[in-house]
Amino acid sequence: MAQENQNGDSKAASAVAFTAVKPQLFVEAPKATDAVQFYKAAFGAEEVNRTMHPKRKADQELPLILSAEVKIGSYSLLVSDLADDSDAPAKTVGTRCIICLETDDVEAAVEKAVAAGATNQCAPAEGEGESACCGGRVAKLNDPYGFVWLICSPANKPVDVAA
Fold first, then answer.
1. How many Å apart are CA 73 and CA 104, to the nearest integer?
2. Cα–Cα distance between 69 and 50 in angstroms, integer?
3. Helix H segments across the chain?
4. pTM
5. DSSP string, 94-133
6. Are 142 and 115 in contact (CB under 8 A)?
7. Hey, which of 75, 88, 125, 132 has its CA 20 to 30 A from 100?
8. Residues β-bridged to residue 72
9. If you average pLDDT over residues 78-95, what whole number do you get?
10. What is the pLDDT averaged over residues 57-83?
11. Phi, psi at 102, each rounded to 5°
């Protein structure tokens, strides 16, 4: 496939391979540590790595997390404190994204998340309408940090997708 650059020259597009996608969740400072603990309790997350804000440590202020990498299943996400003086690319807490977690036992996953502090917004039911993205049973939760989570079972029927 050819690609035209800004000067009008034609060059072959080079292939880029990504090895991971890691969403970064910004929570109100200093709650990233609490959020990591919540994700451990609610979703069985495992903390893999943590980077603290170096300036905060030097200034003897409350230490903030630049990023804490947690794994849920085989996927990673980053959790970060968002302070007023932060130069983070996102300047608001929470987001308009929804995070889907797939499991064979939706009810048990919802029960565990609610026990850890999540709010159940929609009891588990067969996916219909907006919640049909997962295909099977779906429940909707809000975590204490402003993020929406769908807990889904695998799709009941495979759907053919045109290439």
1. 13
2. 6
3. 32-43, 54-58, 106-116
4. 0.74
5. S-S-EEEEE-S-HHHHHHHHHHHT-EEEEEEEE--GGGGG
6. no
7. 88
8. 75
9. 71
10. 84
11. -105, 135
> Structure tokens of 162?
């045109």
Round to whole Å and give the CA distance between 136 and 105: 11
pLDDT of amino acid 78: 92
Dist CA 87 CA 64 (whole Å):
13
* C-alpha span between 85 and 82 (Å, rounded): 8
pLDDT score recorded for residue 97: 75
pLDDT digits (tens, 9 = 90+) for 89-139: 566 655 567 888 989 899 999 999 999 999 999 888 886 544 445 567 889
The amino acid at 24: Q
CA angle, residues 81, 84, 90, in degrees to nearest 5: 60
Whether the pLDDT of residue 45 is over 80: the answer is yes
**SS3 (DSSP) at 58:** helix
Residues 73, 96: Cα–Cα separation, whole Å: 23
- 31: tokens are 């709650």
Structure tokens, 109: 């996953």
Backbone φ and ψ for 57, nearest 5 degrees, come out as: -65, -45
Amino acid at site 8: G
